[in-house]
Design goal:
The protein is an alpha+beta fold. It has a domain of 246 residues: 4-Layer Sandwich (Double-stranded beta-helix), CATH 3.60.130. Helix content is 29%, strand content 23%. A hairpin with a 2-residue loop joins strand 13 and strand 14.
Amino acid sequence: MSRRPDPIPAPLHGPFAWHGDVLQGDSRWQYRFDDGDLAELDRALSGAVGSGGTLHGLGRATFPLRRLGRKLERIGEELENGCGIVRLRGLPVARWAPEQLARVWMGLAAHLGKPVYQNAHGQLLREIRAEDGDVGARYGQLSTESGTFLSSRARTASNAALRFHTDRCDIVGLLCLSDALSGGVSKIASSVAVHNAMLACRPDLAALLYEDLPRSRIGEEAGGDRAWYMLPVWGVRDGKFTSHYSRTYVEAGQLQEGVPRVSDACWQALDLLAQLAESLCMPMTLRPGDIQFLNNHVIYHARTAFEDAPVRRRARTLLRVWLSSPRRALPHGHEVLWRAVESGAARGGIAPHPGEA
């Protein structure tokens, strides 16, 4: 694996480089719906239903939110130029029927970016919960000498812990419909703070994460001319940081033939990344009606294992949306994942199979 030509930057400082113990008590990333917001959502929903619009067609024009829209503009600014995380509380998820709630959630989220597909079947909203049956067979797995290696998508559909990672979009939004009996705590870390901490303690390992690493496409998409691709964990362009990372994709690549080997030093760097994210993170428990927005360029997120109640009505269930909000330019060479890297260009998500969208 060759060294990327761009120089390794100095530590990056700003509101996006936070430590969890400090951000926990900060109010700037916390919002709540008020009665006026909810009344406006009702009106927008009524208009969207009356026009016969689909989830694909919902946006600022078809789901107008003039009053709440100003709050969403502040949220968008916090996501891009602030700490990169927002929690918005108080959406009455029992107020609407499931199909109506899906429209409300999609219409609201579309004010922050353009929804993009989350799999090759053209899915815009994904229900995140512990699914029954063989999730590996359904969403991707590899057979190894020690057992079965689940894809990242399959792991999301279980109740097991999820390691720190990013999603394939500018902004990921999660709406909590119901919480678990126990566990299922979100862990949020500033990837910029992790980057700075590694530069301070092990600059040699930090440098390796600016070099290309091989990643598998297992459970992700069938696109590209092969089942793996090369991409660095970290990059900077025009003073803006970005990280795209999931250790699962790197590990899966090492189980496939023809994929370059990851060096011991690179594994040490990935180990240290996980350790620093854990030490710098902030826990967050999502309750019904809570919304969590994350800027994937500057945030890593993880999840603890959870247990659902025996009664199915108390199962941890989230509605996830992926948004393209290309306010920052991404480093050249990241097109293999994002398809476009210039600011303003639609990007992210997973290209659907022909005829699926």
